[in-house]
Design a protein that fits this description.
The complex is a heterotrimer.
Chain A (H helix, E strand, L loop, with lengths): L1 H18 L2 H8 L5 H25 L1 H25 L4 H20 L1
Helix pairs in contact in A: 1-3, 1-4, 1-5, 3-4
Chain B lengths: L2 H40 L4 H25 L3 H23 L1
Helix pairs in contact in B: 1-2, 1-3
Chain C lengths: L4 H15 L1 H14 L2 H7 L15 H15 L5 E5 L7 E7 L11 E6 L5 E2 L7 H10 L5 H25 L16 H14 L1 H14 L1 H4 L2 H6 L3 H9 L18 H11 L5 E7 L7 E6 L11 E5 L5 E5 L5 H14 L5 H32 L8 H30 L7 H22 L3 H25 L4 H7 L2 H38 L1
Antiparallel strand pairs in C: 1-2, 1-5, 2-3, 3-4, 5-6, 6-7, 7-8
Classes of the chains: A mainly alpha, B mainly alpha, C alpha+beta.
Protein name (chain A): DUF3325 domain-containing protein
Keywords (chain A): Membrane, Signal, Transmembrane, Transmembrane helix
InterPro entries (chain A): DUF3325
């Protein structure tokens, strides 16, 4: 279950990485991002990525880091497919990812 | 550029490439074999552990040598360096094994 | 040489990658399939499909049954072997190896039994997933040692290509989400970058650890330097469980196997057993080896307890408490095989493996395209380029087709045929050879499209063929919760979809190319 949360977090992180890049941001929102905004995305992305690693490793050190590599691969693949074929769908990720993470966290705690 | 000198350059270039590949694969293999054998003698752990550690590092060493062979420009420096390293390590192994 | 380090690295990346790309494609493809070795084997033996892995009997009860059976059936065997059912294998296996006749080699006699009812199950003869597992480092029709050396060399080249690739393409991290479809060689470059970057840690890990699995073939020297007896003596110390005791030629009248098992269960109550092997069960020198099942530790070697058959006392243990070096070595091998993985991680492994296949395939194709672009339109096509293009087509499209053919052969060759396992393998290689012949003749876009369509069709019909020749189908698998089988069929359908999409893409890229050629003509 924790691994699932970590996967969603990893996906969010790479979404932020993608949006920090001007061409992708433009493809998704149609406007150019300000420099400060890109910076903020980048920082958020790194924080979330580190958090993912922490969650994975806290479950099991070796096994967790293997999972972490896999999660990164999965996230990049999904995002690359989305950005190449349906960039506008990226906008819905803004609501879907936090909602899903929240839902799973709540159901995990409950 | 006259066609003959172009041809000469091309042959020299090809020879150089073939030589480097041979050095990287065969030379790299021998040097790696020597360095990990030396390492397994020098490591201050039990015999089994020394062998395991050194074989685990072998691939890394071979890879580094492989890349170094292509990165170092002068062929003389390269061959000299490899030969010197190999001889040194070989002698050390002989001394250590008595 | 070249002017700069970066240029020499670019050069190295291209040539090192190319020399072995077709072999590496085979190794990666078969290796990726072998992450699901057990599941593929299960699929290829429909006789086992009806047994669920939820076993009611306790391990103790199963062992008792196994010993009883061996005692009556083969009291004078050289070795006994009892494999207990696990999550990925539902059957209890009771086997024995007779003493060989002089000048002959004895072979194991296996009995597969349903764990609860003890009804014997005889699955059809098939290599299943093990075929792909063996193929990815032993190749086939070839001496094992030679094959392993070749695979080692190819892996080393792969590692060099990966490292030099990282050095030259620092940009790849910059545009890592970019994939521009339908843009000719630009798309192939994007695909190459994407598939290498997205699983880069995996590619490095799997190549490095792959070499480590064969390392004693490659570098026996440290063991030879440290040990007088070389690798053999090293193995003796590192794997005490693999040694066979010498026969004492004194009969063992009352073996103490039961006491040993009791001792094991009282001292390690949490540890499940995966199998028990007994050497010389009727000799005073008998040794019983209890292999513990690994759980989520990153290690492949199972912990082993060695008990004396005569007195029942614990003689030795192996791989129970690993030293740092053993952990490093064992960890690397475990990371490579992925046997430790739970289904979730196994799928991630599979995904990364597919990314590796895509990386190699796109690299091959890109190279051929570059070669062709560099040629003047008036220049006749050289033999080298022809060869490269044919090999690309034969390898990249032929291997999945041959794999599909292997699965068809598994379902369609009569169960009663003798040596049918070898016939399946023969079908695999014949299909591949046929594709290669096809590729030698038609290696243009039309050829690619045709083979992509044939592949799509083959993979699409495979679940149908399965439904017609066995009791189950995708629907029944889902409703019965047989997920391994259901995923196999789903993957076949997915593969069909991907090949179909590819044939469409090829059709759309064909158009502009043709106009360009007309313009130059």
């Amino acid at each position: 279950m924790m691994y699932l949360i970590a996967t969603l977090l990893c996906l969010s992180s790479f979404t932020a990485f993608a949006l920090a890049k001007t061409p992708h941001y433009k493809a998704v929102f149609g406007t150019r991002p300000e420099h400060a905004l890109s910076q903020r995305y980048l920082i958020a992305a790194w924080i979330m990525l580190l958090l993912t690693l922490v969650i994975d490793v806290s479950q099991a050190i070796g096994y967790g880091s293997l999972i972490f590599c896999g999660q990164m691969a999965l996230s990049v693949l999904l995002l690359a497919i989305l950005l190449s074929f349906r960039p506008s769908w990226m906008r819905s990720l803004f609501y879907l990812l936090p909602a899903a993470t929240l839902l799973i966290t709540v159901s995990h705690v409950a | 550029m006259p066609i003959s000198s172009y041809f000469a350059y091309f042959t020299a270039y090809r020879l150089n490439v073939v030589a480097r590949f041979a050095t990287a694969i065969v030379g790299g293999y021998l040097l790696t074999a020597l360095s990990i054998s030396l390492m397994s003698l020098l490591l201050p752990v039990s015999k089994v552990d020394a062998v395991l550690f050194s074989v685990c590092l072998s691939v890394l060493i071979h890879c580094l040598i492989f890349i170094a062979v292509f990165a170092i420009k002068s062929l003389h420096l390269l061959c000299g360096g490899l030969l010197l390293l190999a001889t040194l390590q070989w002698m050390l192994i002989l001394i250590l094994k008595g | 040489m070249k002017d700069s380090f970066f240029r020499s690295m670019t050069w190295l990346h291209t040539w090192v990658g190319l020399l072995f790309c077709w072999l590496l494609w085979l190794v990666f493809f078969a290796g990726t399939l072998s992450f699901f070795r057990q599941e593929i084997t299960l699929w290829s033996k429909p006789e086992l499909h009806s047994y669920s892995s939820e076993v009611q009997s306790s391990q103790q009860a199963l062992l008792d049954y196994g010993f009883e059976r061996l005692n009556t059936e083969a009291p004078d065997a050289a070795r006994w072997w009892i494999s207990l059912p696990s999550e990925r294998n539902a059957l209890l296996r009771v086997s024995h190896l007779p003493y060989p006749e002089p000048g002959e080699k004895a072979s194991w006699i296996n009995h597969n039994l349903a764990a609860d009812s003890k009804v014997p199950v005889t699955p059809r003869e098939s290599k299943g997933g093990s075929f792909f597992y063996r193929l990815h480092f032993d190749l086939h029709y070839m001496d094992r040692t030679t094959a392993r050396w070749i695979v080692c060399l190819a892996s080393l080249f792969m590692l060099v290509a990966l490292i030099s690739g990282i050095v030259i393409h620092k940009r790849i991290f910059k545009d890592m989400f970019q994939f521009r479809a339908g843009k000719g060689s630009r798309s192939w470059l994007d695909g190459h970058n994407l598939s290498s970057v997205l699983a880069l840690p995996f590619h490095l890990m799997i190549t490095y650890t792959g070499l480590i699995t064969l390392i004693f073939t490659l570098f026996p020297y440290p063991a030879q330097t440290v040990y007088e007896g070389g690798v053999k003596e090293f193995r003796k110390e590192f794997y005490p469980e693999r040694q066979r005791p010498e026969l004492s030629h004194q009969p063992l009248t009352s073996p103490a196997f039961a006491q040993s098992i009791d001792h094991f269960f009282t001292n390690w109550p949490e540890q499940p057993i995966s199998r028990i092997i007994i050497d010389h069960p009727r000799d005073a020198a008998a040794v019983m080896k209890i292999y513990g099942a690994n759980r989520s530790e990153i290690k492949d070697e199972q912990a082993v307890w060695l008990y004396s058959g005569k007195t029942g006392e614990l003689l030795n243990t192996a791989h129970l408490e690993d030293s740092a070096a053993a952990k490093l070595y064992g960890g690397m091998i475990a990371m490579h095989t992925g046997r430790l993985a739970s289904p979730g991680l196994r799928w991630l492994y599979f995904l990364c493996g597919l990314a590796g296949c895509a990386m190699i395939a796109s690299g091959c194709v890109m190279w051929a395209k570059r070669l062709r672009e560099r040629q003047k339109p008036t220049q006749p096509v050289g033999f080298g380029l022809k060869l490269v293009e044919s090999l690309n087509l034969a390898a990249i499209m032929g291997l999945p087709l041959a794999t599909a053919a292997f699965f068809y052969a598994n379902r369609l060759i009569p169960v009663t045929n003798s040596a049918r396992a070898d016939q399946e393998v023969l079908v695999f290689f014949l299909t591949w050879a046929a594709t290669a012949l096809f590729a030698a003749k038609w290696r243009n876009t039309q050829g690619w499209r045709t083979l992509a369509l044939v592949n799509a069709l083959a993979w699409l019909v495979l679940p149908l063929c399965n439904a017609l020749t066995t009791q189950g189908s995708l629907i029944s698998y889902v409703s019965n919760g047989q997920w391994a089988l259901a995923m196999f069929d789903t993957m076949a359908l997915l593969a069909a979809a991907v090949f179909f999409w590819q044939s469409k893409q090829l059709q759309s890229t064909q158009q502009p190319q043709r106009t360009r050629r007309e313009r130059t003509a």
